[in-house]
Write a structure and sequence with these properties.
Protein name: Pyridoxal phosphate homeostasis protein
GO molecular function: pyridoxal phosphate binding
CATH class: Alpha Beta
Number of domains: 1
Number of helices: 9
Bound molecules: pyridoxal-5'-phosphate
Strand content: 15-25%
Helix content: 40-55%
Oligomer: single chain
Order of helices and strands: HEHEHEHEHEHEHEHEH
Family: Belongs to the pyridoxal phosphate-binding protein YggS/PROSC family.
Structural class: alpha/beta
Strand order of the largest sheet: 7-6-5-4-3-2-1-8
Number of strands: 8
Shape: globular
Domain Alanine racemase N-terminal: 9-219
Modified residues (N6-(pyridoxal phosphate)lysine): 36
Length: 220
């Protein structure tokens, strides 16, 4: 009997199937393995299987886990997917290869300053509050065009747009909305879709899916 697929193989297979349905090239979809809360010992098997892009939601946690892992796997990439406080901008610029949560002018300012100091530019996704939820981070859709213009003026490399749709309702309309906002603003990247809905996101244009539970199991 054939060995059962690993979770990573299963997720990749499902991304491949969604791409086929949508007539998309799987090479245009980056799987971001969300390793937040999981220790290095849980991350290493995925690295050995060839996974290279990971997502963390806290600066401090990433600082404790990733320097050693990067030494062993120098081509691994770590993306920040969680909210970022302006006072952590410098640490974030030093540590991450990409930031998915640029969502407000004060953070833009802090990131520009940190990038200028570090002499490097870290690509950023602008997070959009697609459900216009009070408690959620993200730029309001109505403020997006102005915010993108400010980021472009500041020479922040924009990777695209990111969203976390409201919980417990069908996410497809929100993914389609983010896709349209990206298109209207001339941006290629769409960071959308998590364990429960990444295939839907791929069919609606996701270029980056952020998958944790389906790869690592439930978080403690
Ligand atoms: C935790 C998290 C994910 C991954 O969620 P899963 O449901 O475990 O796949 C994706 N995006 C963000 C912003 C997260 O915080």
């Amino acid at each position: 009997m054939k060995n059962p697929d690993t979770p990573l193989q299963q997720v990749r297979e499902r991304i491949g199937r969604a791409c086929k349905v949508a007539r998309r090239d799987p090479a245009d979809v980056t799987l971001v393995a969300v390793s937040k809360t999981h220790p290095a010992e849980a991350i290493e098997p995925l690295l050995r299987e060839g996974q290279r892009v990971f997502g963390e939601n806290r600066v401090q946690e990433a600082q404790t886990k990733w320097p050693a892992l990067r030494e062993a796997w120098p081509d691994a990439e770590v993306h920040l997917i969680g909210q970022l406080q302006s006072n952590k901008a410098e640490d974030a610029v030093a540590l991450f290869d990409c930031i998915h949560s640029l969502d407000r002018p004060s953070l833009l300012k802090a990131l520009v300053k940190a990038m200028d100091r570090a002499g490097k530019r870290v690509p950023c996704f602008i997070q959009v509050n697609v459900g216009e939820e009070d408690q959620k981070g993200g730029c309001a859709p109505g403020d997006l065009a102005g915010f993108i213009a400010r980021a472009r003026d500041a020479e922040i490399p924009l990777a695209g747009l990111m969203c976390i749709p409201p919980l417990d309702i069908e996410p497809a309309p929100f993914f389609a909305f983010l896709d349209k906002l990206a298109r209207d603003n001339g941006l290629t990247g769409r960071s959308m879709g998590m364990s429960g809905d990444y295939e839907t996101a791929v069919m609606l244009g996701a270029t980056h899916v952020r998958v944790g539970t389906a790869l690592f199991g439930a978080r403690g």
